[in-house]
Specification:
The protein is of the alpha/beta class and 204 residues long. The chain has a single domain (2-94, 153-203), classed as Rossmann fold. Helices cover 34% and strands 26% of the residues. It has seven helices and nine strands; from the N terminus they run E-E-E-H-E-E-H-E-H-H-H-E-H-E-H-E. The strands form two sheets. It has a five-stranded parallel sheet with strand order 6-7-8-3-9, with helices on both faces. Strands 2-1-4-5 form a four-stranded antiparallel sheet, with helices on one face. A hairpin with a 3-residue loop joins strand 1 and strand 2. Helix 3 (96-107) runs parallel beside helix 5 (134-146). The chain is globular and about 45 Å long. The model has no long low-confidence stretch (mean pLDDT 93). GO terms for molecular function: ATP binding; ATP hydrolysis activity. Keywords: ATP-binding, Nucleotide-binding. It holds the Pfam family ABC_tran. Residues 1-202 form the ABC transporter domain. This is ABC transporter ATP-binding protein.
């Protein structure tokens, strides 16, 4: 089943950024977007994830042209996609559990204990955010994103602030997730070793 399609995507700022980008991702597939800084990797992710409209071209998620149907776009954002950034963006005023509960309430999905166990954060659930290491914060950020059981994961340098061992563990989990949940992974990364694990690679 096709989950994400980009057709003839063109975008520019004060200068041309990229043009005629085409890709299609089906269940259990992954793509790594690589390239030099400023080449447009994160911009393409923002376009594909419905948060930046391209100058031309189409983005289809679950077969729907999201930039032509705003009501479908909002529903897809709420239920079908998740975005993971390099920075964790957890709420410091809430503890780890409360951060997850907020996502649970918004998505109307229960917190899956198996998810926390897989990310090895189940014993940290009652910690304050300030008590967590950078790797632990990022894993909670990933858990928060995955609570809704998204069909498409957009990850923008999700391991950029992690040590090699933690980065490998996090990526292994994301690949396991898309396999077990018939989902897809759209990954922006500078790490060539991680990129080679994806089915497709697009270099800018």
């Amino acid at each position: 089943m096709n989950l994400l399609t980009l057709e003839g995507i063109h975008h520019k700022f004060d200068y041309p950024l990229f043009s005629d980008v085409n890709l299609e991702l089906n269940q259990k597939e992954s793509i790594a977007i690589t390239g030099v800084s400023g080449s447009g990797k994160s911009t393409l992710l923002h376009i594909a994830s419905t948060f930046l409209k391209p100058h031309s071209g189409k983005v289809k998620i679950l077969g729907l042209d999201v930039y032509e149907d705003s009501s479908s776009m909002l529903k897809i954002r709420r239920n079908d996609i998740a975005i993971i950034f390099q920075s964790h963006y957890l709420f410091n005023a809430l503890n780890a559990k409360e951060n997850l509960e907020l996502s649970s309430i918004i998505s109307k999905k229960k917190i899956d204990k198996r998810l926390l166990e897989s990310l090895k954060i189940d014993d940290l659930i009652n910690r304050n955010i300030s008590e967590l290491s950078g790797g632990q914060k990022q894993r909670f950020s990933i858990a928060r994103a995955l609570i809704k059981k998204p069909k498409i994961i957009f990850a923008d340098e999700p391991t950029g602030n992690l040590d090699h061992k933690t980065a490998s563990s996090v990526m292994n989990y994301l690949f396991e997730y898309i396999e077990d949940n018939n989902a897809v992974l759209f990954l922006v990364t500078h790490d060539e070793k991680i990129a080679t694990k994806c089915k497709y690679n697009l270099n800018f």
